[in-house]
Structures are given as C-alpha cells and as structure tokens.
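Practice record 12: protein with heme C.
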Amino acid sequence: MKKLIIAFVMAVVPTFGMAAGGGINLDSADIDLGDQASLQRGAKLFVNSCLSCHSAQYQRYNRMAKDLGMSEEEVKANLMFTTDKIGDTMKVAMKPEDAAAWFGTLPPDLSVIARSRGVDWLYTYLRGFYVDENRPFGVNNIVFPDVGMPHVFWEQQGMQKAIFKDVDGKQVFDSFELVSKGTMSTEEFDGTMRDLTAFLSYIGEPIQMERKALGVKVIIFLLFFFVVAIMLKKEYWKDVH
Ligand code: HEC
C-alpha cells in the first residue's frame, strides 16, 4: 500500500527542470500567470519597448485580447502600433536590413524565448545590463556577455556597475552597484520586469493557463478516483478472506 501511494505521488507531482545560466545565479522571476493585471502591464511594456525591434510572430492580437481579459477595442487603441488588423500577429516595426546594419545582428523573434531561455533567465537578463565602455552601446549584460542589445530601460532602472571579484584568478560576478539613479526604485523596476517576463512566458505558451487549471482538475479527479478504487477493492475482497 505504501509503495502504491509513493508511486502515485511520484506520478502526479511534476518535476521542474533547471535552466542553465552560464555560472551566474539566476534570480527567481516568481511570475503569476493568474494575475491578468500583471500580464496586461507586461503586454503594454512589450509593445512600447520591445516590438520596435523584436517581433512575436506567433502571437495574434485578438487571441491576446481574449486571454488577457481585454476587449478588442482596448487592444486596438492601446497596444497595436504595427498593424490595424486585430487578427494579425505581432510583427516588428523595423526592417530586417536596418536591424542588421544597426546592431550587427538581427533581434530575434521573442515568441518562444521564455521557453528556450526560461523565465528566471529572462528576468535576470532584463535587470542585468551594466556599464561597459568597451561595448558599442556602452552596456554589457551579466547573463548575455557582449550582447548586441542596448539597455532599453536605462531611464527607469538607472545605470549600474558590475562588481567582479577574483576567485582563483578568475573574474566572477559579485553584485551590482547603482551609479546613476533611474526614475523607478529597485523594487518598482523588479516588479515591472516581472510583469514583462510574465507576458513573455504567456506568449511562449498561450494555452498554459488553461492547461494548469485543467491539470488541477485532473489531479482532484484522480485523487477522488483513487479513494473510490480502494473502497471498491475492499468491498470486493471482504468475503474472500
Ligand atoms: C533597439 C532594438 C532593441 C530593442 C528595443 C529591444 N531589443 Fe532585445 N535585442 C536586440 C538585439 C539586436 C538583440 C540581439 C543581441 C545579440 O545577439 O547580441 C536582442 C536580444 C534580446 C534577447 C536575447 C535573445 C537570445 O538570443 O536569447 C532578449 C531576451 C531580448 N532581446 C528581449 C528584449 C525585450 C524583452 C525587449 C523590450 C523591453 C527588447 N529586447 C528590446 C535589440 C533590441
């Protein structure tokens, strides 16, 4: 019986994979996909600050309106800058050849970035730009060395310096130190980046909210059925022994 219970628990409890961060400790994004207000803020940040360079070519505006609890009119008025058709996907404003010329590399499509990199990596990346005079845009990134992307939120976050310490002759990242203040406090900026990360996680797998709700129902059903099965077994065998 004990074995049966252990096997059952192991079958229903999901195991979580760990995303690699290249030796840097990733901060936990701690997103809540049930929080529609957070996802809506994230969507706004995405279209205002990212869509100029990055597309999300698998995400349609009307699907987003439905999933995030917004009317199509709201989405049209506030979130659509690169098209006026609600059934369109989130295309980029910039021409690819311009991007290649300006950044030396094409800003990748971000539809599935949360799945390939993981949400903790994204959250750490968005908060991980630091001053580096040797880079074309004057910034580097702690989880993406020599990144070709500028620090989009420098006004909000401010500029930070990375402190490295010497461990066995190797330079290892230790901490950040703010060198010029932004318009947001650290807590505010972290919350804002959490919203954006949540939105990127959502577009990576729009079905995941439904999937999670369904999963809970399935587990409740299985637990219920497990009890019924045991009771039934007892009933069947009670006259045999
Ligand atoms: C000015 C153009 C520009 C804007 C605006 C911009 N990015 Fe980027 N981004 C780039 C470029 C260029 C790269 C490619 C960097 C490289 O490969 O070195 C990149 C890379 C990235 C990557 C890493 C992709 C990978 O290969 O893993 C992520 C994640 C990312 N951007 C997210 C964002 C988000 C989120 C926003 C909105 C806040 C944003 N970017 C805004 C230009 C931009």
